[in-house]
């Protein structure tokens, strides 16, 4: 999972990762926020192009302007090899690490309520990590650093490198659908790995940050994370088809697309029963294009956080060396952010404009590990829908 800052687009994830995702903040020059949205292209055609990418089994997408749908799309199939018919365009899907933006919002709502501060230390908020020696230098790590992935805490999910230096396999069994892992079990996995930097020194994506933030929410509120997400976000925003997966065998309700992942022999296996305990604050939300878009619209319109707390998540990181690099959308005419998320067999991405008026959410089920081509197709889909007159890919010239 990776968080990318303003005016920066790093390559889409090369591999599907647990609850892992990409948060891409793309800021281009734009006209006044009150300007009427430009003409839009066909969502269905954009989704069809996405589904035509090798390794994509099925895809759905939905675009919204001022809270109203301007098109839903579905292409490909629910199951591998064209079986199962099309995925319903309003089907639920795992949103992967887009969950993190929601968890971060709840944390900052607790800051607004005076329950904690962004400068509070992990050791004070979650003493168990010190008592059990689960996080090194917990007395120096702040909430702000965990929110922004500058804590230096290693990622419990990250693949171990091979002897030749290449990326190894993911650190858990993607076909273990039944074993329940407690959040602290996942944190413990990261303890033997080297830190990625000094606290606050640099950006280094780590799912462990959000596993810990989920535990902090539960300790401060006395409620489980699923309850806090529902009561603070899903219920008030009318996200009626959204919920948080907690333990196996929790899964996706209703007809939906199935993802596939190769086993050690290279054979594709259905991973629809993906282990729910791997969410744990870092992922785990199941939603729809409508509901995800409703969350991002409320977030950008300032309905969830005051401006000073919103900026904790959106201000650029001065210690990220990639700041300021990257292309723009639509020749600099589209001003907004993209958040994405992956899990074995799945890849999701949502674009939302900085003024809160436009959103485009997509989900693709996969039969490959490499997410580069599906990710590129999603970037292209955003441009084809919100600037159909543009013929330039948003990543053109970046290869």
UniProtKB/TrEMBL annotation:
Matching InterPro entries: AmpC-like, Beta-lactam-related, Beta-lactam/transpept-like
Q: Which GO terms describe its molecular function?
A: hydrolase activity
List residues of the Beta-lactamase-related domain: 44-356
The signal peptide, as residue positions, is 1-35
Can you tell which superkingdom this protein's organism belongs to?
Bacteria
One Pfam entry for this protein is Beta-lactamase
Q: Which UniProt keywords apply?
A: Hydrolase, Signal
Plastid is among the record's keywords:
no
- As recorded in UniProt, coiled-coil segments are none
Entry protein name: Serine hydrolase
